[in-house]
């Protein structure tokens, strides 16, 4: 659990450095997906950051698309996901 978005972003930077160092290890990427989905469930204010990071995971390893979707749908029903993504799409684009 992260106390602020700034702390969370610093941790994410460190995680991405480790992932790059390990040649985009699928195990590390899946662990990151788990962390992001947990963060989304616990803190709605982190949705836009988590959505962007999930996209980065997908972009770096497209074969994980099913894994990402499965983990999201285990925590959120499809309608809730649609609401989360629609509500955060513009802020996600603006942030990055």
Please characterize this protein's 3D structure.
This protein has one domain. Helix content is 80%, strand content 0%. It has five helices and no strands. The longest helix has 18 residues.
Mean pLDDT: 87
Give the total of beta strands: 0
Q: What is the H/E string?
A: HHHHH
Question: What ranges have pLDDT less than 50 throughout 5 or more consecutive residues?
Answer: none
Protein structure class = mainly alpha
Cα Rg? 13 Å
Tell me the overall shape. globular
Q: Tell me what portion of residues adopts beta-strand conformation.
A: under 5%
Helical content band: over 70%
Total discrete domains = 1
What is the terminal-to-terminal distance?
Answer: 23 Å
What would the keywords be for this entry?
mainly alpha; 96 residues
Topology:
Blueprint: H1 5-21, H2 26-42, H3 47-60, H4 65-75, H5 78-95
